[in-house]
Automatic annotation (TrEMBL):
One of its GO terms (molecular function) is transmembrane transporter activity. It comes from Aquincola agrisoli. This is MFS transporter. The lineage of its organism: Bacteria, Pseudomonadati, Pseudomonadota, Betaproteobacteria, Burkholderiales. The keyword Transmembrane applies. Residues 219-412 form the Major facilitator superfamily (MFS) profile domain. The chain crosses the membrane at residues 21-41, 61-78, 85-104, 110-133, 145-166, 172-196, 228-247, 267-286, 293-312, 318-339, 351-370, 382-402. Keywords: Membrane, Transmembrane, Transmembrane helix. InterPro entries: MFS, MFS_dom, MFS_trans_sf.
Amino acid sequence: MTAPNAPPTAAPVDGEARRNVALLVAAQSLGGASAPIIISLGGLVGQALANNPSLATLPVSLYNLGVALSTIPAAMMMRRLGRRATYVGGAALGTLAALLAAVAVVHSDFMLFCIGTALAGFYGACVQSYRFAATDAAPPAWRPVAISRVMIGGLVAAVIGTQLVIWTRDAIATAPFAASFFGQAALSLLALPLLWRLRAPPPAPAGAPAADGGRARPLAEIAATPQFIVAVTAGVVTFGLMSFVMTATPLAMVGCGHTVGEATLGIQWHVLAMFAPSFFTGHLIARIGKLRTTALGLALIAASGLLALAGLELLHFWGALVLLGLGWNFGFIGATAMVTDCHRPAERAKVQAANDFLVFGTVALASFGSGRLLNTAGWETINTLMLPLVAVVLGMLGWLAWRHPQRPAAAG
C-alpha cells in the first residue's frame, strides 16, 4: 500500500494496461447508457403502467437499489471467476433485463417492468466497478489516470443514452418507449465482445500473501484503518450529496416557476460537468495528490450549495448544478483512487465491494428521500444541510493529509 496523498514514483505503463483501459472506456460508454435510459423513462413508464400513482418512480428506485445490493454478489463472482467472466455475465443479464422491460411495456405489465429494472442493477454494479478494473494491471502512479479515463466513458454513455431515448421513444406507435428498452438491450449486446477481450489479472486466492509477504487481512481489519474510513466517507458523501441534490433540483426549479425545459437543460449541463473533467482529473491527481483533489471536489460541492442559497434565479440553479457536477468528478475520482491504496491484491474484491455497497446504498437512499425532504423541509434546507457534511469530510481529509505528508509524483 502507499500513502494516501503520495503516489509512488512513476513506472512504465505496459501495452496491456492501456489496452484494458481502452476496452473498459468503450464498455463503459455502452453499459453506462443503461442508467440514463432507465432514469429518464422509468418514472414515465411507471406512471403509465402502475395502478397507484405513488408507485410511478418505483422502477427507478429499484434500479438504484439493485445496483447497491449487487455490489457484494458481483464481487464474490469476480473473486471466484475473475473480472472478465463476471462482466460478460453482467452484460448478458443486462441484455435480458432490458428485453424484459421492453416486453413489459408492450404488454403493459408493471410488475415485469419493475423486475427488469431491478435486474439491470446487477449490470449497473458491474459497470460501476470498471473504474477499479482499470487499475488492476496499472502501475500505482498511473491508477488515477486509468480511473479518470474510464470515467470519460460516462460522458459518452450519457449522450448515447439520452439520444437513444429521443430517437426511439415513439418508434413503436402502440407501445411508447418500448423501442428505447430494445435499444438498451442492443447496447448491452455490443458490450459483450469488448468485455470478452479484457485481459484482467486472475483473481488472487483467498489465502494468497501480499507482495510484501504479509497476510491478506480480514475486511473488518481493513475497514478500521483511517485510510479506508476517510476514503469511503469521502466517496459516500460526494456521491450521496450529488445524487440527493441533483434529484431535487428539477423539482425545485419547476416549483420556483422555471420551465421543465430549463430544468432539463440544467441537468444536461450538470452531466457534462460531471464527466468532461475526466480528461484531466487523473493528471490533476498526479500533480497535487489524491487528498487535495478530493478536497477540491468537496469544496466545489459546498460552493454549489452556497450559490443555490444565494437566489432562485435560473443562473443560480444552473450554476449550482455545474459546480455540483465538477465537485462530484474531482471528489469521486479522488476518493476512488484513495480506495485503491487501501488493499493488497488478495483483498481487492472485498474492499472494492464494501466501498461500492456503501456508496451506492447511499445513492439508493438518496433517490428515495430527496423528493420527500424537498416537500417537507424546502430547497434552502437541503442546501444548508449539505454544508456541515462537507465540512466534516474536509476535516477528515486534512487530518489524513497531516498524517501522510504529500510527496511529488508523476503519473507516467
